[in-house]
Specification:
Shape: globular
Distance between the termini: 22 Å
Largest sheet: 8 strands, parallel, barrel
Strand content: 15-25%
CATH class: Alpha Beta
Number of helices: 9
Number of strands: 11
Structural class: alpha/beta
CATH topology: TIM Barrel
CATH superfamily: Divalent-metal-dependent TIM barrel enzymes
Helix content: 25-40%
Radius of gyration: 23 Å
CATH architecture: Alpha-Beta Barrel
Number of domains: 1
Length: about 350
């Protein structure tokens, strides 16, 4: 797995500065938030080419363009057409940037509030996006997100089936799924299967009441009503990512993990902290996967030697190491926190 920084966490810097910071922090790539001052569907082509040149200079991949257009399910036809035109413009810029994946938002409301027509309208326009993206050999990404049509594995797969295009994949975001109070551990990874094509990580926790601007807090409508959240550094909130990373390792996921860092800390400090946390999660997941592979291989019975022990006293090979005493690493799936929730809208 490769690690990318989300440029949205560095919006107080220019895209040139954000790319240098990302490289200096040792990231493999940068997922560009498609908002000015970093990039937009209106960014001039010469400036787009300069961004590509800077990526090469800093040895950074640009795996994803984090688009903000779409939201088709709740928009009027003219608004949908305008959003589609924005997507086409961003698609052209993705080609110059050598970026293979573009995020598009399907829209809301929350999956548990949505009607069939919300899904049908989103599917219609997303199908058009996918058909055009195929001409460029690009993939459309839909982010599993709170306050959207795709808050859960089930609602996400429902929309994908309605779109009916194989170049549309999903972004697994444990933080957003924590907010929606749906599983984001092993079952979510296996449930999404090959449609899981990108991963976002961030941490949050539920709090009694959100504060004002600059406090890193926000409120969202969930199936429990209006709830309040605090954005945290990885490992300091309630989104336990261990089981997720174990499942990614076990299933052979070799894609990108983007750090969406919005906790109320200086952005470079925040990114460095979360980078170290993800590296530790990757090491632990690799070790856990290795243990699982080792313990899943059946032990070959060792035949007793007649020359060294009489048949009547030789212990059966199967009794040498009882299965109940075989040592294995703790399984993070035992942690109830892994089926929690996380993430503010619009990141």
């Amino acid at each position: 797995m490769k690690i990318a920084a989300f440029s949205g966490a560095l919006m107080e810097y220019s895209i040139q500065e954000a790319m240098k910071i990302t490289a200096d922090l040792g990231f493999d790539g940068i997922e560009i938030a498609c908002r000015e001052p970093h990039l937009s569907p209106q960014t001039s082509i010469p400036r787009v080419k300069e961004i590509r040149r800077l990526a090469d200079e800093h040895v950074l991949d640009i795996p994803v363009l984090g688009g903000y257009m779409g939201r088709f399910s709740e928009s009027g036809d003219s608004e949908c057409a305008a959003a589609y035109d924005e997507f086409l413009a961003l698609l052209e810029r993705a080609d110059y940037l050598e970026t293979d994946m573009i995020r598009v938002f399907p829209g809301g409301p929350n999956a548990f509030l949505a009607a069939d027509y919300h899904y049908e309208k989103a599917a219609h326009w997303l199908r058009k996006c996918a058909e055009e993206a195929r001409r460029y050999e690009k993939t459309i990404l839909l982010e599993i997100h709170n306050v959207s049509l795709i808050e859960t594995v089930e609602s996400s797969l429902r929309l994908l089936e309605m779109i009916g295009e194989d170049n549309v994949g999903l972004i697994h975001d444990a933080g957003n799924m924590y907010i929606s109070d749906t599983d984001f551990g092993r079952a979510s990874v296996t449930g999404l299967g090959s449609r899981l094509q990108h991963v976002h990580v961030k941490d949050e926790k539920r709090i009694p009441a959100a504060g004002g601007p600059g406090t890193g807090t926000f409120r969202n409508v969930t199936r429990h009503g209006e709830e309040h959240f605090l954005q945290c550094r990885l490992g300091e909130g309630e989104v336990d990512h261990r089981e997720l990373f174990e499942a990614l390792a076990e299933t052979g996921y070799g894609g990108w993990v983007t750090l969406e860092c919005f906790a109320p800390y200086p952005p470079i400090e925040q990114l460095a902290h979360d980078r170290d946390a993800v590296r530790q999660l990757l090491r632990e997941a690799a070790a856990s996967a290795a243990v699982r592979t080792t313990t899943s291989v059946p032990r070959k019975p060792v035949a007793a030697s007649a020359a060294t022990a009489p048949a009547s006293t030789a212990a059966p090979a199967s009794a040498a190491v009882p299965a109940s005493e075989a040592q294995a690493s703790p399984d993070a799936s035992a942690s109830p926190a892994s089926s929690s929730v996380s993430a503010p809208g619009g990141n």
